[in-house]
Amino acid sequence: YCDWKHAPRDLARHESSESHIRCLSMYISRKAKTTSICKDFEKQNESDRKYWCKVLSRVLSVIKFLSSRGLAFRVNNELVGSPENGNFLGILELMAEYDTFLAEHIQKRVNKGRGHVSYFSSTVCEEFIDILAKKVLNFIISEIKQAKYYSVSVDSTPDITNVDQLTIVIRYVLPDGPVERFVQFVPIRGHTGSQLAQNLLDFIEDKGITVITEHNHLAEYIPCVALSLNLQPLSNTRWSARHDAINALRKGYQAILQVLQAISDDEDEQLQTKQTAKGFILSMEKLETVRLEEQSRSEGTSLDSSSRFKVESYLLIIDQILLSMKTRIAAYDRLQRFSFVARFKTMTNSEIQESAKTLLHHYSNDLEESLPEEMIHFSALLKQHNFNRECSIEIQNLMSAFPNVSVVLRIYLCLMISNCSGERSFSVLKRVKNHLRSSMSQQRLNSLALLCIENEILTNVDTRDVIKSFA
Questions:
Q1: What is the pLDDT of residues 7-32, one digit of tens each?
Q2: Which DSSP letter does residue 436 get?
Q3: Which Gene Ontology molecular function entries are recorded, alphabetically (predicted)?
Q4: Does residue 441 share a domain with residue 386?
Q5: Is 341 part of a structural domain of the chain?
Q6: Which domain, by its residues, includes 208?
């Protein structure tokens, strides 16, 4: 064809011609009967996708099982079939004995060398651990943001490599009740209040949680109830009860000097701490101090057994009880403003109103002026209906009618009373990072510890969502 000047006219004639219509009909008919190459590729891709999803779902189940129990995954030997290939591959082999699909996959693709993908490698395993940990942590953070009010508990302990690990536990209130969630271990170098606070604030800001800072004067400090039961330091005035402390100083004189010298030479310590240590060294190295240390306690006051028991045991115990009680009363004095919450049924309206006004004064940004009236009406409702712990859902429905009471109860329930959750996280730390896994990275430690401690959340993580994130 060369008459391009009249091409539009000729094309219009051709489109309406019998031959063109016949050929177009034949093309449509053939296309309907046969599949194109693209459809073949799509079908093959869909088949491969389903195949690998079945493989990865089994791999993911094993990872969930091991991580939720704090067990080791791999060893240096990563050959399937070897009795020394670790828990991860060993459990997959055990599953293959009862799973025909997994057995065929292992036979076709495992231990075949490069170019044969099996998704049993350590790289895939570590990536799944990281994805699962992020899913669990994001779930916890979303709950915290939804709860609005929360409290934080921190404590530290050295791991197997003598790195101080700061555990962070957050307590908040869900519709079903208060929960305490472990979120992370943070390696720390200093133990001062400002350093611990900075580590905590860095984590909170990094995760996008509403920050509790020094600017919020409503942030309360609560010491651990369990640790408050520990014996307090000896009396500053009853020196007859100081024999054990003086005896420890005499026996460990040289060791104490070495520790003080190490502190004074440590570049990471604060200047004030180093100067204090140097002052103690100078005092202990003076001639009269050393001579005093070398003298024996040959001469002493002669006491009969009854007087010795009174001085060394009875008075000491009484002194410890008094000091402990005073310390605990002072530490929890600020919590007295919430004490009326547990005594609704036994308080008069005037007492409730006075307590509510005190609480309103401290939390004026969170509570409204109608709090005293709401408290009185809520107390009357509790007296008429004998609610118990099993009625939490019914009480939750009532909270829409008592919004300020709901805020008070949530603040009250989110107060961190003890550090038991933090202590339990240390047990997981010792189990996850032991002498066989002492070279574990900090990120992997946090991932495995989170999956082990918060295994309830891990169980509910959607497998398909994890595989989609992996892909």
A1: 888 888 888 888 888 888 888 887 77
A2: G
A3: protein dimerization activity
A4: no
A5: yes
A6: 128-222+418-470
